[in-house]
Amino acid sequence: MAVRHINPAGLHRSPAFSQAVVVEQPAKTIYIGGQNGVDAAGKIVGPTVGEQATQALRNLATILESEGASLANIVHWTIAVADGHAINDGFAAFQQAWNPADPPPAITVHVVAGLGPGFLVEIGAVAVV
Amino acid sequence: MAVRHINPAGLHRSPAFSQAVVVEQPAKTIYIGGQNGVDAAGKIVGPTVGEQATQALRNLATILESEGASLANIVHWTIAVADGHAINDGFAAFQQAWNPADPPPAITVHVVAGLGPGFLVEIGAVAVV
Amino acid sequence: MAVRHINPAGLHRSPAFSQAVVVEQPAKTIYIGGQNGVDAAGKIVGPTVGEQATQALRNLATILESEGASLANIVHWTIAVADGHAINDGFAAFQQAWNPADPPPAITVHVVAGLGPGFLVEIGAVAVV
């Protein structure tokens, strides 16, 4: 198994994402459902994107750790932020959670009309171990 | 090939989804495009989320059956509901279509500003056989 | 490795997409982050969906070519168009970029409340080589 993060010549470079991630088989793929800012009891942790993104990233880490993996194993993530809320707060939470020494995943970001009741941000991911 | 649905300690549990699904290679992966509430002629089956979700799930089943698989092989699905329509009707359709004995897939749910003309719900999926 | 595009009996057929794509392992999977209408300097190429979709597809092609692949290797793509802008302009760009001799990918299309600042369209993809 090998995972390569690529940023081909001719494309803009960003510290926040890789343009694509190449996965050679055989590998173990972990499909992680959209995580929200809820705690172990299913309660929303707070009313801000920053709080909710921090918790969603914590949930992602918990899932990955249960498989002996970490956030660094994410190859692609899908971020949705509810309309009217700043994406930037989510990026700030990411920068807190992410080790800048690891190449970042490919990313998809949508501002959506809504999420489940009370949710302001949802982060789903595919990870490869 | 092995597929494991995981719900690690420290995360909220729901009967409606698994937190993540782990896929060991080699496996056959089926990428299913977003299914809408359209019949074999491409006609929209009705004006409600419930009717459309029921048909979209039927389309997913048809696709999977053509590969000798079933809804139980879905590891992740991506559900979009058009703004102003209740997500709950989609969940009701899911509960009708889903065998509760099977571990549910990981899930991503977005309320979107819109879909194709007349579409109220779209369900895409990744399945593993 | 084998990739099969399927359109099972009982489902509507469209020249614009396949209902699903089946991937046998082992294969190399390329997870491509959402591409926008930005050039190599990160600048938005123009204010229309058509211009931005054309550039996003060019970026996808650049990424795939850097791996010895092409748009024909895409098995699934996720298209988001900002609310208030016609999806059709994106399809026109697709028809320009896509070789009609190649079976089209599975597709998911959402109209979203927004994307990053100035972006009208985002195209993410999973490709298999």
From TrEMBL, chains A, B, C:
Keyword Signal tagged: no
Listed EC numbers: 3.5.-.-
Keyword RNA-binding recorded: no
Keywords recorded for this protein, A-Z: Hydrolase
Pfam families, sorted: Ribonuc_L-PSP
Molecular-function GO terms, alphabetical: hydrolase activity
PANTHER family: 2-IMINOBUTANOATE/2-IMINOPROPANOATE DEAMINASE RIDA (PTHR11803), PROTEIN HMF1-RELATED (PTHR11803:SF58)
Family: Belongs to the RutC family.
Protein name listed in UniProt: RidA family protein
